[in-house]
Amino acid sequence: MSPTVLSPVLSPVLVPVAAPSLVPAHGVGNRADLPLPFTALVIAAVAALLISFVAVGVLWREPRLSRADGVLLPRPLARLLDSRGVRVATRVLAGILTVWTLVALVAGPDSARNPVPHVVYVWLWVGLAFLSLALGPVWRVLNPLRAAHAGLLRLARVSPDLSLLTYRGGLWPAAVGLGLFTWVELVADENTSLPFLQVLVGGYVALSLAAAAVFGRRWWDEADPFEAWSALLGRLSPLGRRDDGRWVLRTPLHGVDELRATRGLVATVSVMLGSTAYDGFSANVSWATFVQTSPIGAVPLKTMTLLLFFAAVAVTIWLAAALSMRLSGRSLRDSVHFVSDLAPSLLPIAGGYVVAHYWSLWVYQGQYAWVLLTDPLGTGANLLGTAGLTPNDALIAPTLVATIQAVAIVLGHLLAVVAAHERAVTVLPRRAAVVGQLPVMAVMLFYTFAGLTILFRP
After folding, report:
1. How would you label 339-354 residue by residue, b for 16+ Cβ within 10 Å and e otherwise?
2. Domain boundaries, the chain
3. Is the pTM of the predicted complex or chain greater than 0.85?
4. Of 239, 323, 361, 399, which is the most buried if we count CB atoms within 10 A?
């Protein structure tokens, strides 16, 4: 067996690679690889945000985003997207991959040769994010548990809308589920061992199907963490539908603007932002040294820090909303509603963080998963013919990765500024909207500086 290298991307996933192959972290770029000096990059990013804020404040006087916007897709492509055959084929492929992975989970080796960690932590978590950013909420189509639930209802010859209780929890279960999964990926010990993964996957499957049996398919629509992860990031997809149902290409802002306040939305966005921020922070060598020397156990300390990151995002959003209301001459009571209106505008930042933190993981380790999947039982088989595959590292050149990271962070914040302004002029009088966004702008600047510092720390 080839040497095993500890990869920080999977926290910690043990990846067998032939030395001296590169096993990239979430970002292989650093300050030395930036096309601009770090200080110049921060100044340019801050200047871009301030100029954008002033420009939209002066020129964007009323709501401009409409569901009627967009460039119509060619009819053949639109028919392909709506094709029942395409949807069935993708569901079948997702089902085959699920069964293949379950075989490895149940009967595969408890070693670095098992493909399950890569499927769970790279393909499901990271790959689903990138696919959703490109194509929209694809997990609604691919989710094998949703398909299993629907199939069971058909076999029982009952209505697909069957539920024992009315679901009213909003996105709160999704927020909790995403937080727990982040904890598993970034904090939990032995998170790639087979017994751990068997409990994790088995528990998730059992809980999800039980909840769907009680609450019906609304559980998948609102409460499932991976459907929420895909749906929220899918808001940034350039693909969308007009009011007449036609497929169009549009800006990421249109999908964000269509999202309305939902119970648990602020918590879910806070987990999405906080998890990627903690992920980058936890790769800091100084932090790792502190954890190892702290009298507090590593798991409790990391858990408390992760929760602090979640809380910090939620608190900054709430403070920005509260100060915005005060500056706008509104009561603090109104901030409860405005914080929910503001939360969708942070999705471009979350999307930018995902791209920045996970680019190198996805384009490199995503390829390596095929090497492991060809031998799910660890017997030396080559069922897919990919045993000799060597992942292409052209897309993880340090300077390229550093550039992608910097652009993703800055572009995400620029889109967030515009999205926040659109929402503000929709719910507030124009002058109040511009003045009230000053605290929001301060939060955007803080997030930009923090995000760039975490990624390109010395």
Report:
1. bbbbbbbbbbbbbbbb
2. 4-236+243-455
3. yes
4. 361
